[in-house]
Specification:
Two copies of one chain form a homodimer. The longest helix of chain A is centred in the C-terminal third of the chain and has 25 residues. Chain A is globular and about 60 Å long. With about 350 residues, chain A is of the alpha/beta class. Chain A folds into two domains: about 160 residues, Isopropylmalate Dehydrogenase, CATH 3.40.718; about 170 residues, Isopropylmalate Dehydrogenase, CATH 3.40.718.10. The two termini of chain A are about 40 Å apart. The interface between A and B is large, with 48 and 48 residues. Chains A, B: Its EC number is 2.3.1.274. Chains A, B: One of its GO terms (molecular function) is phosphate:acyl-[acyl carrier protein] acyltransferase activity. Chains A, B: This is Phosphate acyltransferase. Chains A, B: InterPro entries: FA_synthesis, Phospholipid_synth_PlsX-like.
């Protein structure tokens, strides 16, 4: 592996440098070829670096930024006032070729808008989409998009998402001729919103896409499809619903091993079983797949959960490493021209 | 309790009389005041009744229907050709006062359209909504609507759903001043679709509604709100996603107790633990709360899952019994006038 430089928006997310800096150190420790540019308030970043290993710090550079984009500000307003912000400077590092990808846990709408403004969409793409890869019950993985880069999507956008998702499944997951489905409220052709039905019509006509029809919410984790396409609102709500249910189960399992008035051997047994089961379910823990890839740009941008903890933010950095190594952006660009109908 | 008569669309759902008839017998056995009208093909119903107890059958009447509305037909077409169908006749029983409620596992769109046509919406309601009550982590329950009666909803409809949901939480769950929230992709006021933001504005102005703002998908089961309002597309996908994840966990737990090459004591232990955990999670099993109530009509209509098994369809019948006993439809009608703004 060759040297790799990534830019981190160190101020983004609910916890800022308290999470992003330890996560950066963890990612650096795990990959000796990795270099990181930490963009943000130098004082805050330095405080979090105080006890860090000096050999690891040698592969880390602080880039000063004057401001932070708040998570509750409207994207349009955030973009207008973005000069000097940690998120914008991190993206500029990518634009200027100083970093190969950027990772931020900040305001999703602002990241989407700024990334589009600075890095530009690929030819044939109107709006980028947020994509993640979920584990499924068939021991495989499913590409899901859009997870909220866009609030609203028309049928043309859904078709573009489908094409990008298919490329990801082929190139990232090595699935030949991946199955592509649209998320809908029924499997019959007549079901759902007009935009979805129109997208289905177009997808059926694309020879390069293995379109298999509609799937419903209960098939999110069953492995019925390799690529699942939906608009950003539905994708965001669906993913968060899934995460909420998984977290509830994991916490119920955890409490199963706990105290109470049980005999010592019951407690031991409980803890042993809790560990066993947690191992079986650990791949479903949302922290394990944090980091959604903003697809469709001339550059690699990874969006982390705002509430990500250290482990989860480290996973997001590693997603960026992978995306760069697999040349995700370049591969999508190459395939788009071949797959998308010329009339679009 | 006084005598109660319900009409069952015996032909609806994926399994028709094979599920609806045994479930009807189970519901009759559980409630000696219950009488059922089974609407459908007399031969098919009689076959499923062959071994039934004659005392129970005395409280059951078969009403002949010539046809069945298929689950994959467009609602508009289904309604045009609905005369003589089991779903329509079951609804007519309610309209004519021969039954106090109707239960169907058939085509959702057709049920919604026919119910609106035959039973008429309450004053102040444009379109009925499908509602269910989910268990939450606070040992409480949450009213969720719309679950797919409408594919698309404008802000006025969302406000009406919120009012109906609040009435349900107060009257059915006995929650004083229930918290009402809109499902969105962020908690900040600026987030989400225009329709949701407009509905939020109206809800903030309604003195009778305890509107608490937006909640996200991960809060579906946390008990953060007593009433959760969303459009039918999002509600349907969200509920099905939740159900898919819960079923996956329950099946993983089940397999934990299974065979393999483990020692006998490991298998025993596994089965013991699986039972213990299943008991803890059983209230989350989707079969436990099957039966969504179609709110906003001059009559009680319960929609069962199309794929419901006998136990789940029995639960749907019991939902209808409750809705009638609690006078859900009448209570909503009484409250709507007081709560909804006159200008609407």
């Amino acid at each position: 592996m060759t040297r790799l430089t990534l830019a981190i928006d160190a101020m983004g997310g609910d916890f800022g440098p308290c999470v992003t800096v330890p996560a950066s150190l963890q990612a650096l420790a795990a990959n000796s070829q990795l270099h990181l540019l930490l963009v943000g308030d130098p004082d805050a970043i330095s405080t979090s670096l105080a006890k860090a290993d000096s050999a690891i710090c040698a592969r880390l550079q602080i880039i000063a930024a004057e401001s932070v984009i708040a998570s509750d500000v409207r994207p349009s307003q955030a973009i207008r006032n973005s000069r000097g912000s940690s998120m914008r400077i991190a993206l500029e590092m990518v634009k200027e070729g100083k970093a190969e990808a950027c990772i931020s846990a900040g305001n999703t709408g602002a990241l989407m808008g700024l990334a589009k403004l600075l890095l530009k969409p690929l030819d044939g793409i109107e709006r980028p989409a947020l994509m993640t890869v979920l584990p499924n019950q068939q021991q495989g993985r499913t590409v899901v998009l859009d997870l909220g880069a866009n609030v609203d999507s028309d049928s043309t956008m859904l078709v573009q998402f489908a094409v990008m998702g298919a490329v990801m499944a082929e190139d990232l997951l090595a699935i030949a001729n991946p199955r592509v489905a649209l998320l809908n409220i029924g499997q019959e052709e007549s079901k759902g919103l007009n935009t979805i039905r129109h997208a289905a019509e177009t997808l059926r006509g694309l020879a390069d896409i293995n379109y298999i029809g509609y799937v419903e919410g209960n098939d999110l984790l069953t492995g019925k499809t390799d690529v699942l396409v939906c608009d950003g609102f539905v994708g965001n709500v669906t993913l968060k619903t899934m995460e909420g249910v998984v977290r509830m189960f994991l916490s119920l399992l955890k409490s199963e091993g706990g105290g109470g008035k049980r005999a010592w051997w019951m407690k031991m047994l409980g803890r042993w079983l809790q560990k066993r089961l947690s191992r079986r379910f650990v791949h479903l823990n949302p922290d394990q797949y944090n980091g959604a890839c903003l697809l469709g740009l001339r550059g690699t941008v990874i969006k982390s959960h705002g509430a990500a903890n250290q482990r989860a933010f480290t996973v997001a950095i590693q997603q960026a490493e992978q995306a760069v190594q697999r040349q995700v952006s370049e591969r999508i660009a190459l395939r788009l021209e071949a797959v998308l109908p010329k009339s679009d």
